[in-house]
């Protein structure tokens, strides 16, 4: 029996993936160093999107987490998560390598064959989210065999989070798991503790307070003369702001979802957010490269076309993929393998 979908969670994934697309369009322009006169604005906009979308995505993913009963159940759990995340991870990595190879000198920091062969330890581009999420499921799942209390899981993840901020570990996946598992468990904890209902009941003042804190942070951050957005590896004290973004999202998303057409549109998008996440990145990059090759340097043209092609291009490819049987296996492998893994 299929579990009933929670509409505002689907909405949240859909709305957040829009911010991911926007963030990558803006970041790509900033990192290209072709728009020096707009670098300050581009960096500021990048920071706005980046302090929000990935922390919220991990929290939305953790919302549905369930502690693993025992080691026997863990094996099935491990296989399922590996298939669900591993197949699209491999597909994207190969696609990214092929496209960057075709792009040649037009591509900054293109992945080599050696990079592709080492994706088991170092992910390519945006696929890092899937790689880290798989590790989070693995680590949190193992811990949950012994620790069933959502409060205890939250405290463990909070300790790991503080450790990652103030005493970062110089090993990629360990640091990533220490940092991002907190947001994964934060989403789970908000659900289990009943605080999601409290946030909904008190949404006006919580939204105002959250936005106020974020605005104050952005002003203070801007005054520090930053050269890049807050690191997703070692954010330091700055990383504390990410949790405010999660609170804001979990407060506003149930409200925004109630706006019929707006809510319905992004709820449908949210059910395919992973596909859009993987497809938009190469589309956005190709769009920027082609425009620069054509000597089009108007930043507004880049922003508008980057967003439109990144968004609607992904949706169009998704539409085509769903029209042909088995083609969508690379994104929805469990759709075809579920009976074999049960």
Automatic annotation (TrEMBL):
Family: Belongs to the acyltransferase 3 family.
Keyword Membrane: yes
UniProt main location, coarse: membrane
Membrane topology: Multi-pass membrane protein
Domain Acyltransferase: 7-311
Phylogenetic lineage: Bacteria, Bacillati, Bacillota, Bacilli, Lactobacillales
Keyword DNA repair among UniProt keywords: no
UniProt protein name: Acyltransferase family protein
Compartments, as annotated in UniProt: Cell membrane
GO molecular function: acyltransferase activity
InterPro entries in alphabetical order: Acyl_transf_3_dom (IPR002656)
Segments passing through the bilayer: 12-30, 42-61, 82-99, 126-143, 150-167, 173-191, 203-223, 235-253, 274-293, 299-321
Keywords for this protein: Acyltransferase, Cell membrane, Membrane, Transferase, Transmembrane, Transmembrane helix
